[in-house]
Amino acid sequence: MGGVWVKDPDANHELNSRGAKAVLYVLNVGDRDIQIGSHIHLADVNENLLFFTDKNAAAQAEQALTDQQLTRPEQIAEARRFAHDRSKTPGRAPWGFRLDVAPGDSKRFSPENTPSDRIEAVEMGGDRRVPGLRKNKPAGDVDLD
Question: Which of 22, 25, 89, 110 sits a CA distance of 20 to 30 A from 117?
């Protein structure tokens, strides 16, 4: 486990047990892998990662990305129509959520992954303030609630 020291390795340890959990589906529409660390606010990650709250929407986006009648920019634009809105929506992933992985771990999303990656996300804890991966982040979006 990335960066986790365990006193009793034989014991059952539950990580990220507090707060809400969510299942998301993720598609990378970029041209290279994107890696997300364990404590990164999902709504702030690279915009080439599209999040879906249900598998059907992810499947529709995957279909759009393989439509031979569309150019690549048109395919991506069509896939974005099905993606979940990342704007401030407290209590709805990806807003206020991070990967449900051990501290220090990360997950890499490749453009070749189809069907989309299914991930589990957990609600961010602490002060619930995320000051910044984006320069253009609206001031009101620092507070997650």
Answer: 89
CA distance 91 to 36: 21
**Taking the domain 21-125, which CATH number applies?**
2.10.150
What is the C-alpha separation between 121 and 98, in angstroms, rounded?
5
Please state, in angstroms and as integers, the Cα–Cα distance from residue 79 to each residue in 13, 15, 134, following that order.
Answer: 39, 33, 23
Q: Hey, where are the domains in the chain? A: 21-125
Q: How far apart are CA 75 and CA 42, in angstroms?
A: 23
Check: pTM over 0.90? Answer yes or no. no
What is the rounded CA–CA span in Å between residue 19 and residue 124?
Answer: 8
Confidence of residue 91 (pLDDT cuts 50, 70, 90): low
- The C-alpha angle with vertex 14 and arms to 13 and 20, in degrees rounded to 5, equals 170
Contact between 111 and 29 under an 8 Å Cβ cutoff? The reply is yes
Phi, psi of 37 (to 5 degrees): -80, 170
- Contact in structure between 36 and 57 (CB atoms under 8 Å): no
